[in-house]
Structures are given as structure tokens and as C-alpha cells.
């Protein structure tokens, strides 16, 4: 179900959290569309778990990976057409999120190359007023403050909030608390924010979380010049056909005599 959903979104890279695979068993979450996957599975059992899946339509050459033995992060880096990319799938605990995030970001800073994209379940709302249906959160203020400080120190921008500064939307519903929260985020360094084309919260399907769908513009691709072409359907209009015919007839009537420049040029050619 998950792979079918990924195919329907035409995703090139998928960042997964809470995979709950056992560390000592081979993971079978691959198919023809996503033949390559990297998984961090916890040695403590079927808890946590993160993954990065790469589509066959995204022929990146993987140059390095870093997998967490606790299943909290999966880092993958590679190159495509001379441009380096680093993808990070992260899953924070529901307590002391800031400490785990700081440790992850330090590890990522030593590993990363090129354009960096971080996505995952951070298990807290970055702005309780906008990112929760109740407008409040039980997460201590000190944890929120230090989480923001960690993101700021690495110049990481919450992509969805950057493009939806006042919108209220959520990625998770908690039945016990009867509340909605935006816990799933995608981050880009400030210096790469100009590559962001769009970011949206998708519909809930196979998971209990809504997916976050992000599109980046590749710095390697330059837009092609568009060639103008006549919309031939307009010629089906009798008035347009008649007007075009009259214009052509008038043009050839008024341009029967060559200009002196063209006559002179023609004589030189004949000699």
C-alpha cells in the first residue's frame, strides 16, 4: 500500500519514519519503481525506524550513507550530474526532542554535501498557536525554545511554514487528545530556499500521518526557450481565414517591386 501510494505521487525520493522493521531481518520494502532503499532499524526491536527510498527515475550515484543504530535517522548523500545532494530522514522522540535534534544535526553537519533536505516526524509543533487545533501544547517551552535555537544555528527553514505563513493545517490527529497537530516537517538550509518550488500537506492514505509533498527546482536544469507555434484551430474560423487571406493578398500586391538594395545585391550575385 505504501509503495503504491509513493508511485501515485510520482516521488523521486521518499523519507520514511516509524518503519518498525527488525534490525536483523532483510527489509522487503522495494519494487521496480523504488529499487534502492536505505534503512535504519533499531537494535532494540521493532521500534522507531527510518528510511530513504530512491526512485529509478532519479539516477543519483550514492556516495555515502549513515544509519542510526537506534533507528532515529537515515542519512544518504550522492551526486547527480555533478550536483551533490544529501537526504536526511529523522524521527524525534516525544520527550526531550531538542537534545536528540541537536545531536542529529551535529552528525549531519559532518556528513552532508551539497543541497541538503531534511524531512521527518519531529513530534512537536514548532508554533503551537498555528500548528495545533487547540492553539496550545504540552511540550515544555524550554524544549520548543531550544529546538528553534538548534534549527536557527544550522540556518534551517521550515519549508511548509515559509510558504504558508498564516495557514493552519495539520499532519496528525490524536484520538486520546482529540486534537490535530503539524508534527511532520521538511527543512532546507536558508541558502537553498530559492530552490523550493512548492510544498503541500497531502491526504492521509495508508499511514496515520499526512504526507508532506515537496518539489525542488534542480539548479542543473535551465529552462528551455519556448518556440512559438500557431494554434491551428483558429483557422477553422471563417472570418479569421478570410482576414488572413486578404492580408496576404495585400502584402504581395504592395511588395511586387524589389527594393534598390535587393536589385543591386542580385546583380552582384549574378556576376
TrEMBL record:
The active site is at 91, 121 (proton donor/acceptor), 209 (proton acceptor). InterPro entries: AP_endonuc_1, Endo/exonu/phosph_ase_sf, Endo/exonuclease/phosphatase. This is exodeoxyribonuclease III. GO terms for cellular component: nucleus. The record marks 209 as: Interaction with DNA substrate. It comes from the Eukaryota. The record marks 184 as: Important for catalytic activity. It is an enzyme of class 3 (hydrolase). Gene3D superfamilies: Endonuclease/exonuclease/phosphatase. It catalyses: Exonucleolytic cleavage in the 3'- to 5'-direction to yield nucleoside 5'-phosphates. The record marks 123 as: Transition state stabilizer.
